[in-house]
Amino acid sequence: MPDTDSAFEFDFGERALAGRVILVAGATGGLGSAAVFVLARDGATVVAGYRSDRKRAEALKQAVEAGCGATLLMVEGDISDPAARSRYVEEADSIGDGIYGMVCFTGDPARVKFDDLEDADLHASMQENFVAPVLLAREAARRMRARAIEGAIVFISTMQAAAVFESSVNYAAPKKALIHTARIMAKQWGGPSGIRVNVIAPGVNRAGMALKSIESGKYDFYIDQKIIPRFGRPEDTARVVRLLLEPDNYITGQVITVDGGLTLRRDRG
After folding, report:
1. Domains contained in the chain, CATH given
2. In angstroms, rounded to a whole number, what is the distance separating the alpha carbons of residues 248 and 242?
3. How distant, in Å, are the alpha carbons of 106, 151, 243, 259 from that of 256?
4. Is the distance from CB of 234 to CB of 206 less than 8 angstroms?
5. How far apart are CA 52 and CA 208, in angstroms?
6. Do 35 and 239 contact (CB within 8 A), yes or no?
7. In this predicted model, what pLDDT tens digit does every residue of 41-79 receive, in sequence order?
8. How do 21-25 and 99-104 pair as beta strands?
9. CA-CA distance, 260 to 249, in Å (whole number)?
10. SS3 2
């Protein structure tokens, strides 16, 4: 091998995702749509899954195709339904060399106070935030492994699973289970020609339901006390998604917390 230290020869993989087929579940949400844009811009063939809002899905498709010069393929269905999971993966695996990567943004904030929790609340949160994403990933991995594709899977968790926040049991517990399961997947599917599995844990973002909380002033304390320099943006998470999906990526079995340092300094002030 050449001595890159003295030759200054480095390979940073321009448009490394070009032609790769990537399934994005929860693609029309605030974080998911940003990831779709950055992946399509880098030349990936993106299959964008959404639950039911066809109007928003069509708007995303038009925006991506106009802004990135790429064709965005859409697939509808709730991944809590096994038939929908199969449809998602079959759609992606039928293109080109087959499915290379999967990112799962789906979930539910499950905002029920611990004292008010019922059995049904916990079961519903586990299904949305843990069971459905894990089973979708398993189905995608089966296709990758059958084709001997050295692929990548990225789960989206939350900072509430990376640190302890009061009143977060119903949401944080399933998302924490997702982190541990991702590490198990990375271990058993890894190695040469294996599948890399990682997790992103976003903080307070200007997207989805968190946006309403930001606009209400609920999180102003974090800015006023200089706990974080700003609120998160969808682009922050999208850039990490792209990093973790790059074919020559050297990261697996890890959790990357994208929160501006909130989990480190949340008790300050």
Report:
1. 17-205+233-258 (3.40.50.720)
2. 12
3. 18, 19, 11, 9
4. yes
5. 16
6. no
7. 999 999 999 999 999 999 999 999 999 999 999 999 999
8. parallel
9. 23
10. coil
Contact of 22 with 102, CB cutoff 8 Å:
yes
- Per-residue pLDDT tens digits for 252-266: 999 999 999 999 988
The 10 Å Cβ neighbour count of residue 44 is 25
For residues 241, 136, 161, 208, the Cα torsion angle rounded to the nearest 10 degrees is 70
45-50 β-sheet, strand order: 73-76, 45-50, 21-25, 99-104, 152-156, 196-202, 255-258
Is the Cα dihedral 86, 209, 207, 195 positive or negative? Answer: negative
Structure tokens at 76: 């509808």
Q: Tens-digit pLDDT profile for the chain (269 aa)?
A: 555 567 898 888 789 999 999 999 999 999 999 999 999 999 999 999 999 999 999 999 999 999 999 999 999 999 999 999 999 999 999 999 999 999 999 999 888 888 888 999 999 999 999 999 999 999 999 999 999 999 999 999 999 999 998 888 999 999 999 999 999 999 999 988 799 999 999 999 999 778 888 999 989 999 999 999 999 999 999 999 999 999 999 999 999 999 999 999 888 75
Q: Which are the contacts of 199, defined by CB distance < 8 A and separation ≥ 6?
A: 154, 155, 156, 157, 178, 179, 182, 254, 255, 256
Instruction: In whole angstroms, give the CA distance from residue 248 to residue 268.
Output: 39
Residue 81 to residue 145: CA distance in whole angstroms: 23
